[in-house]
Design goal:
alpha/beta, 10 helices
């Protein structure tokens, strides 16, 4: 398979995931050895917390109040261990992101940073329910000189429209992903694009206890996608998809 390179303005991702380890060390005041230990334990610790404390009736509170810095390590480990998969998603952002961009459930900020570096993007609204995530990505934006281009919020703005809406590894964490899809549809401008992925699977060994896997809800989700959006073909090897509105 031919390896396509990211554009030069994203070279820092290929080299160091936009300085992710350095930013984690600075933000959490950790030495490098402790950071590596916590990254190695991140996925297991989040799964244990999920099995112990996760409740769909209080899902928002779980992600807002309970996951704490464990989620930073889980997400950080995933992004560092699977750079090719993340990179292919970044290609879609480079190809389609423009204007005013919403990054819904932005996590550790990789996709928001990528969008903010794209010359066709005017502004990125980074939205995440977890205050620690928001503080961390604010720190990253400052370190990367992107504070002027990224705005932070805890909820999707109720009014306003977007040229691009991104949401990575979020929809499976919501009790009603159809509702969120419809919110994206309403907020997306007529010629806009949405870039999404999801993983409706609890894992072969129940390692994702906080993922939705209800067959009826998933079927309704796919029917909603098919009735509201048209998929745009892309050549990248990734589960991420790109859509335009079916107007």
């Amino acid at each position: 398979m031919v390896k396509v390179a990211l554009p030069d303005f994203l070279s820092d991702f290929s080299e160091n995931s936009f300085n992710l380890k350095q930013h984690l060390q600075e933000f959490l005041h950790l030495d490098s050895t402790t950071l590596e230990q916590k990254l190695a334990q991140g996925k297991d610790n989040l799964a244990k917390l999920g099995h112990k404390d996760f409740d769909w009736d209080a899902a928002a509170a779980f992600y807002r109040d309970k996951v704490g810095e464990i989620y930073l390590f889980e997400l950080g480990a995933w992004h560092l261990e699977c750079p090719d998969n993340i990179e292919n998603a970044l290609f879609l952002i480079v190809d389609h992101a423009q204007g005013r961009v919403l990054d819904f459930g932005g996590g550790i900020g990789t996709h928001a940073i990528c969008a903010a570096l794209c010359p066709e993007v005017e502004q990125v609204i980074y939205c995440d329910i977890n205050p620690l995530n928001r503080d961390f990505v604010y720190h990253r934006a400052e370190q990367l000189g992107l504070s002027h281009k990224i705005v932070f919020c805890s909820e999707m703005p109720p009014e306003g429209s977007f040229d691009t809406i991104m949401s990575f590894d979020v929809l499976e964490h919501l009790p009603d992903p159809c509702e969120q899809l419809l919110a994206f549809y309403q907020a997306l401008r007529p010629e806009g694009k949405t870039i999404l992925n999801w993983h409706f699977f609890k894992g072969f060994n129940q390692e994702y206890p906080f993922h939705l896997d209800d067959p009826q809800v998933i079927e309704a989700f796919f029917k909603t996608v098919q009735s509201k959006f048209v998929e745009i073909f892309h050549p990248y090897y990734t589960t991420t998809r790109c859509y335009r509105k079916w107007v």
